[in-house]
Design brief:
The structure holds two protein chains of two kinds. Chain A contains two helices and two strands, in the order ββαα. Chain A is an alpha+beta fold. In chain A, strands 1-2 form a two-stranded antiparallel sheet. In chain A, strand 1 and strand 2 form a beta hairpin. The longest helix of chain A is centred in the last third of the chain and has 16 residues. Chain A is globular. Chain B is α+β, with helices and mostly antiparallel strands. Chain B is 34% helix and 19% strand. In chain B, strand 1 and strand 2 form a beta hairpin. Chain B is flat and about 60 Å long. In chain B, 16% of the residues are buried. Classes of the chains: A alpha+beta, B alpha+beta. Chains A and B meet through strand 1 and helix 1 of A and helix 5 and strand 7 of B. Strand 1 of chain A pairs antiparallel with strand 7 of chain B.
């Protein structure tokens, strides 16, 4: 899946950033430069994909 | 004669030695590094000047109600009788101050500076993306919010 970053800027200036196609901590790394540039201080909502990497590692440990 | 006949009959190939720099340059003169095209630079500067006219703020002040002047590190001059002052806050962020009388400023920059903040967000995000050689696709949604899609190898 192609990796893209979607930014939605509302009419009152509120900004929503969505990293698509990223898994695990890559998501936060990919959007960090925008968060810093736009000085975003807000709520971060982690998508299920964020936990995917961690879940995989856990499963490997159980299997091994 | 042999040389002339060769010139007339055969294809002529002229080799011109290419100089690494223009002839008027001195041997030790460094060549400029053009990282950004001048068009891009002008575009960027124009954006910065338009929205943050520091010298204007210092010399003319920021227009408020009844010719009152507001203090501003920078000024934004929308169409209308009043300006917006942009002042740097102790934490490094910028605060907006304007005389909101009769909604002159709101007409230009939106309620609670919304249109201005949206404009700033779109341009700041676009500039940051371009710095990283990302492609930016821009689309206005039905609710008038703006969607930017960033794509590229460096993501």
């Amino acid at each position: 899946m192609n990796r893209t970053i979607e930014i939605i800027i509302g009419t009152s200036g509120e900004i929503q950033i969505d990293a698509i196609g990223f898994k695990g901590p890559d998501c936060e790394k990919a959007t960090k430069f925008l968060e810093e540039a736009l000085r975003l201080v807000g709520q971060k909502r982690k998508k299920p994909e964020h936990h995917e990497q961690a879940k995989k590692t856990h499963q490997q440990r159980l299997g091994g | 004669l042999n040389k002339i006949s060769r010139l007339l009959l055969g294809p002529v190939q002229i080799t011109v030695r290419r100089l690494p720099s223009p002839p008027h340059w001195k041997s030790n003169q460094p060549s400029p590094l053009l990282r950004e095209s001048s068009g891009k630079q002008i575009q960027k500067r124009r954006f910065e000047l338009h929205w943050l006219q520091e010298d204007v703020a210092r010399n003319l002040g920021v227009r408020g109600y009844c010719e009152n002047k507001i203090k501003g590190d920078f000024v934004i001059k929308p169409d209308g009788p009043y300006d917006l002052a942009v002042n740097q806050q102790p934490d490094g962020t910028f605060g907006l101050t304007a005389d909101l009388w009769q909604g002159h400023v709101a007409k230009e920059v939106g309620k609670d500076y919304g249109k201005l903040l949206q404009f700033y967000g779109v341009h700041q995000a676009t500039m940051e993306a371009r710095k990283r050689n990302l492609s930016v696709f821009r689309r206005q949604k039905q609710d008038r919010s703006i969607k930017l899609i960033l794509m590229g190898a460096s993501i």
